[in-house]
Input
Amino acid sequence: MNIRDRACLYLSVAPLIAYILVFTFVPVLCGVWLGFAGKFSGAFPSWENYRYIVSHFQFRSALLNTLIITGVGLFLELVAGFFLAFLLTKKFKLKGFVRALVLLPLGIPTIVSAATMRSVFDTQGYLNEFLYRAQLIRVAVDWGDGGMKTLFAVVVSDMWKVTPLVMLILLAGLESIPGELYEAARVDGASALGTLRHITIPLLKPFIVMALVVRGIDAFRLFELPLALAGRGSPVLSTYAYFEYMDYNNPNTAAAAASILFAIILLCVVLVVKTTTRKVLGGK
Amino acid sequence: MKRPLTSVAFAFTLLALAVYTLFPVYLMVKIATGDPSDIMRERPGLLLHSFTLEHFRNVLSSGYLVAPFEKSLSVAVLTALGALLLSVPAAYAISRFPKNVQYGFLLLIFVTRMFPEVGIALPVSVAFIRWNLLDTVPGLVLAHLIRVLPVTCWILLNTFETIPKDLEEAARVDGAGKLAALRHIVLPLALQGIAVAAIFSFLMSWDEFTYALYLCLSEPTLPLKVYYYMNRGNIFETATYSLIVALPVVVVTYALQKYLRSGYLAGAVKG
Output
């Protein structure tokens, strides 16, 4: 490749890289800077905003809610996604139809699913109606009034929307495992559980890690669903940052909260990638 | 001997799955076409009891639909165009770079995914106040490109990677110039991938909520209308606007199912 061609290639990439730097990395750095700029004292750097939010009851509950929603949600989505992927490795009539059906929630806009889930989890909503019919409750449950119930509503709504994505990743993994391995395990008299533990899960591991990272990042950043279903009563970090900015007109504390969220995401991704790659290397 | 029992259990599982998946979508239609006397009850039934187009008529005649619809549509079209303009040349160039450069680029894109959107939207909205870009179409397009570009880059990089360099070189040996080789060999082969990237960026902008919430104060987009009516407790408008936002997305996503799979996965594997 001559120098002119090479220059052309660099020129073709430059606008995109410039865009990503100016509109993604610069705002993130600005956010970090805002978080360390004292609103009242004007000092920089200052821990003022961080001290304020850490002492704020709402922030502590937002932090806890974020961790619970992410942890519980990820676990349930992985289990359900694995189950769905496993179903779809079977051969049966209408398989193409079932696959299309299972993928349907991926096509529903998040704000629409949030609005619909609000009808489901309303006090006079459809989950309560179902529970009346099943004779599980006699008095309406108020799913939105805070605590574990509300977090449960957020997790279930998120699961409905994104389990298909987890399923797709795990299905690709399951389909990559050669059938002969199962055949050999069967011949050797392995139990179903043994096959799962010693063949499926180890070979699926890279795909599980991928699902964990891709979904984990999004679970930490959930915004529409907690905004619609939990509101100000049970904030998560992203909605807390939104309320601080829009309702209390305090960009500095909002930026500090968003920076903390980013730090948590970064920490988790590095942790997951580090531990899993070391294990893979150690195993080999 | 176990067989009939297992297949009954299997069929039952599939049925339960279908009901669970379809219920929220069904509910949206039920509310949007339900008679108020039937929906606004302490114990709403689970089945369809009434059908009316009254809510659609109200939304259409209210005069509040057209402006948000136009805004959403123009932002989505411009976002798709902008995404192609920035990422087609870039993705092509990167596909011709050595592997380690490609890896570095993908890492960069993956890192942008880790930033919380509320963290990006806040400084952007502060800057847009100063630049008078709040509530404008160009402002929202600039913001939507932030989330759209990584996805279109993934799709397009995968597209260009599958086109062998040899084809291009053969054309040049036959005397075609660099640009002619691009136009007659590479672009036609990449056209499908480019179309998929364009459609995905359109959809990602069409139903985008977070940036719109930060950057639109008095001229909402369609997703903001859903949120607005939801907060006011107008469930019929909420459901009707929801259907209007969701319908094109559902139809197109359904038609593009196989790309949804390879596009997302290829992106995820490499990231």
